[in-house]
Amino acid sequence: MIQKAKLILKDIFGYDDFRPLQREIIENVLERKDTLVIMPTGGGKSICYQIPALLFDGLTIVVSPLISLMEDQVRQLEVLGVEAVMLNSSLSTDAYQKNVRRIRQNKVRLLYLAPETLLMEKTLSLLASQNVACFTIDEAHCISEWGHDFRPEYRQLVALRNRFPQSVCLALTATATERVQQDIRSSLQFEASASFVASFNRENLYLEIKQKSQAAEQTLQFLDKFPRQSGIIYCLSRKQVDELSTFLKEEGYSVKPYHAGLSTEERQQNQASFIRDDTQIMVATIAFGMGINKPNVRFILHFDLPNNIESYYQQIGRAGRDGLRADCLFLFSYGDIQRINYFIRQKHEQEQVVATAQLNALVGFVEQDVCRRVPLLKYFGEDAQEENCGMCDNCLTEHVAAIDVTIPTQQFLSCVKHSSEIFGAGHIIDILRGSKSKKVLKFAHDKLSTYGIGMDLSKQEWFYLSRQLLQQGLLIQDMTHGSLKLSAKAWDVLRGEQTVSAKMAAPQKKSTRAKVEQNYDSTLFESLRELRKSMADDLNVPPYVIFPDKTLIEMSIHFPQAEGGLLDLYGVGSVRCAKYGPPFIQLITEYAEKNGVDEKPKHLIDDNSVKPPKRIGKPRHQVVSEKYNDGASFEDLTNEFKIKVNTLLNHLYNFSSEGHVLRFGDEFDEILSLPPQILVNVRKAFNDHGMLALRPVFETLNEEVSYHLLKLIRLQILSAQAKNNQNDSMVTN
After folding, report:
1. 242 and 390: one domain?
2. What pLDDT, in 10s, does the model give residues 338-379?
């Protein structure tokens, strides 16, 4: 039977080999043994029930919590020629009845349902007439009260075990601690021997945590690394989502908001736009993501603190599902803890206990300076296989030596005590640095003996020290209000009986690039993406349903020019190849002839010989900018590359930021209409605030100069600097 499963794996799904544990899980299910699967997002959970569904003589029920998740799964299966339908409230009456008829006629292999729909008497009556071979419960952590997304209706699913005793049951989730796993097994009456726990380690995710400081500018710096690529930014509140998405839109980014305060129609439209690659960035609350199976999400940014480690892990798991590198940045602020605690206080007493414990675990994870994967995996009951993963900020940081910081520590602890141990680190630092803020003056803290005694350290250095004092147990932080208190150990330091060492120098980051990227022709890749997008729009499906990015990258490495070569690639089965392959083969063949490139069959290449990561061809921003310098107008370029003027200006900005000189065509004549004094003020504002973020400059100028003009002036300044640098270099030589 497993040989048939492997044939289906390649022929329908396009994969040569099973991923870790998939074979064992499928064998267990085919033997009709109840099975619990804990497998990380992107680990291939769906294959574990979709292949058995195609081998069973009967119907496979898939219980899923979100309509969007069902729609995505059914759409992908239909593309692959698999008979799959769903029953839920999103369907019209006609569509619903049509699906019911197909089920009654035994024309369906997989039926997707929400738990509420499944438990309806009319649904149970329908299923009673069918040969139900398998019950699959997706997102099974929803069963557990200790899960991060507990749903009471999931608890009722156990009743189905008695109603359909002949059906094998498969429960799957990406995030479950040992306690949650035990709760799932107990609720579903599973045997412990039928559990499969895959590694929680997603090796292709680069994990980074930064102290939140000037968050808007940090966000722009991060996004600058991912031109024309998909990503999600998570915020804690609806208000923050709206503000940040508006800001990014003004900065020229392709962005949409997503939160529960939007209408259902707007949420659906924004989500569809993101999935179809019409929108690059989704700024969202935790309401977004569970139903997203978009494989080419290249980055996740936590603008605010997630609720707990499970939420953090689940959300970063939405990136890099195609196995390629994805970056996950978490902007951490102790002030955000108070906001999380506000939400915790709205819960019932028992829920507060669970949520507080989860929050404390999250803060503990953030504060450690070991490999990020060590505490993250430990939380899920797994030991890291190596101490240096090479794919997190801590492992790629040149660690500095600890120095004696007893005196500044005594200053900090003394200030905490003299201000009554009811304030957070930010206020303590303001006192130490002699701030005249309203809060300092309001509490007369400018009269304290510790006022102004810490001017020799920067605010950032004081924050860095305060975090280490918390880690060393000299300070205790009230998780409800964020205030700092002295521990018993702190008094030994204040009395001079104990010295303190800490790392005060800023850590130096080593250079890092992806482990998982390979050489590929980026120009061909972009052309393939454009072809895929055009086809997807015509077929009204997301682009990744046709081929994922990983397949396009392999096309751009191997240049397949016939069906055989295409079938060798990742994710290309016979159905996909026949349905979508010909236009891609034609494009690749024409590109190869034009550029004198030969096909490089995958089966003849030793993948280990491919040296990462060097792209063939120029980045898009360089191609566009060089064409502009060669005389193309803004209109020419926006038409040729099908981009907006804002995107074009961003390409030119990236080009000029790299030290290239730009020509100034007619499009820059708008600047000449500005009064000379305004130009002087603009240049001064850029000098004061830097070139990266436009909003501070915009606000400094009382919003009198448009963002478009600011971008043009910025290009002039950068180009002038580049020209001066070139002249200086010529003089030196």
Report:
1. yes
2. 777 777 878 887 777 778 778 888 888 887 878 999 999 988
CATH at 538: 1.10.150.80
pTM of this prediction?
0.68
Q: How many Å is the maximal CA-CA distance in the chain?
A: 88
Q: Do 261 and 364 have their domain in common?
A: yes
User: Does residue 416 sit in the same domain as residue 467?
Assistant: yes
In this structure, are residues 510 and 448 in contact, taking their beta carbons and an 8 Å threshold? Answer: no
Q: Are 73 and 34 in contact (CB under 8 A)?
A: no
Write the pLDDT tens digit of every residue in 653-682: 878 877 888 888 888 888 877 888 888 888
Using the 8-state DSSP alphabet, how is residue 402 labeled? P
The confidence score (pLDDT) of residue 411 equals 96
Query: Is 556 found in the same domain as 495?
Result: no
Domain that holds residue 498: 403-506
Q: How far is CA 152 from CA 145, 199, 287, 315, in A?
A: 8, 28, 18, 22
Rounded to whole angstroms, the Cα distance separating 403 from 393 reads: 22
Q: In this predicted model, what pLDDT tens digit does every residue of 303-352 receive, in sequence order?
A: 998 888 888 998 998 999 888 999 999 999 877 877 777 778 788 877 77
Assess if residue 514 is contained within a domain.
Answer: no
CB burial of 550-588 (b: ≥16 within 10 Å; e: otherwise) equals: bbbbbbbbbbbbeeebbbebbbbbbbbbeebbeebbebb
pLDDT score at 204? 93
The one-character DSSP state at 38 is: E
Query: Any idea what DSSP says for residue 113?
Result: E
- Residue 129 burial (CB count, 10 A): 9
**Structural domain tally of the chain?**
5
Residue finishing a domain among 474, 506, 538:
506
CATH number at residue 179: 3.40.50.300
Do 606 and 696 lie in a common domain? no
**Phi and psi of 210, rounded to 5°?**
-125, 145
In this structure, the answer to whether residues 296 and 170 fall within a common structural domain is: no
Per-residue pLDDT of 432-466, as tens digits, reads 999 999 999 999 999 999 999 999 898 878 887 88
Instruction: Classify residue 158 as exposed, middle or buried by CB count within 10 Å of its CB (0-12, 13-18, 19+).
Output: middle
